[in-house]
């Protein structure tokens, strides 16, 4: 795609500069919020180890007491199922429970995992709609309160049905932080720093992908883990004081006065002096039209190119999470040692450093292609090896490369749709990813398959992912829509077209450099050129399908 004009910087960068203490503060707070990803342990319940719990019994003559059964001698040896347990939370809180999921049927563990992922999928969509309608901060507040309350409720819950219900509710209401913090950072960062800040914010989530299950298994029981998550939520309540609303969202919704107030305070923190009459003004009549424009997800999909872009990225999320879940279950269904986790961390750091170095020369979508190939090939081929050093090394490389793919798609996806329904689309992508994991878990755990079938399935998924990598649009050092050519993918009024800022008291020195949100410099592109410009060719498989359908029609005529 050719680039016409200059790459735009939004009004936040225009006022605050490319990076400053305010941007760093928002980044650190957002990164801390993403540590909630470590407390989604119910998504992988079937990979967790049984807790250290004591079976309580009043029988006399007990000589063998296990987690789920009691063996005692009374004229004859009898084995009875345990019906009551005592669990020690944090080492000093004693809880008595009459139901333990680890002593139920194995299907209960799988059901809890699938319910958790289903709740997370629904929550991501709902929170995306709320964030685009009411702002980024409100869903984060609901998420934090839910983490505190529902985490504590789950710790004390003593019923199978109620436990499943609260697992679903916790996943539903505590799914905002895992992606809305990334949206916020995308909307306050400059083009030059956006990739770096997004990687910093995503780091806790990337670590959770690898270390959540081992960390949960290192604690005595999941009740202790839930209590730690609730206590951490109290810290988030304090951090919310420094979590701002997105200036870009405020502008999209016509809240210009609130945007001015927010940027004025942020400029003060960055050491930038603005006059008391600091103003942000729409500098083009189209910007006023945009403020009244209502964009819906269905209306957004009426343009062919943007429809293909959405379909491509959603399918990518489904298939990649399917592939990742296959690798994840394969690794953590075995005994994971500390040495293996250290190897994964070392190789992950090495792969990350190489990716950062290559990103200066290679576009994101080419890096995505490289890591998808490595992850897919190793995930499929590792089944051919026995449990030895070579297999462990290949699994470590696959895990490190797979985490890098997660980092890249978390960075690329929100930047493909820098419009007023960005959070909704990003949330739908996360929901699609959870759907891919649900399909993977269902096939792996509930449907008996041999290694050959799994290898063929993973190889096919990898091939499709490779093809999708080349259909992803370039977002290096920018967001879409950005330049004139991007309007073939988005509505002309999908962003406020131009904003001007007055940062000094003197009207004669008013800074009227227009930051173009939907196309390049107007000085280089006249309205006549815009009207006469040929539209972009359809992306995706439209031309191939047209050729194929033409061949089919000709064959029918011959008959």
Automatic annotation (TrEMBL):
* Pfam families to which the protein is assigned, alphabetical: Sugar_tr
The answer to whether the entry has keyword Acyltransferase is no
Q: Which InterPro entries match?
A: MFS_sugar_transport-like, MFS_trans_sf
An example GO CC term for this entry is: membrane
- State the membrane topology: Multi-pass membrane protein
Instruction: Name the residues that span the membrane.
Output: 21-39, 107-131, 138-156, 162-185, 197-213, 225-243, 308-333, 339-360, 367-385, 391-412, 424-446, 452-473
GO MF terms listed in the record are: transmembrane transporter activity
Which keywords does UniProt give here? Membrane, Transmembrane, Transmembrane helix
Subcellular localization: Membrane
Where would you say this protein principally sits, based on its record?
membrane
Q: Give the protein name, as stated in the record.
A: Solute carrier family 22 member 2-like
Q: Which organism is it from?
A: Bombyx mandarina (Wild silk moth)
Give the organism's phylogenetic lineage.
Answer: Eukaryota, Metazoa, Ecdysozoa, Arthropoda, Hexapoda
Q: Which gene encodes it?
A: LOC114248264
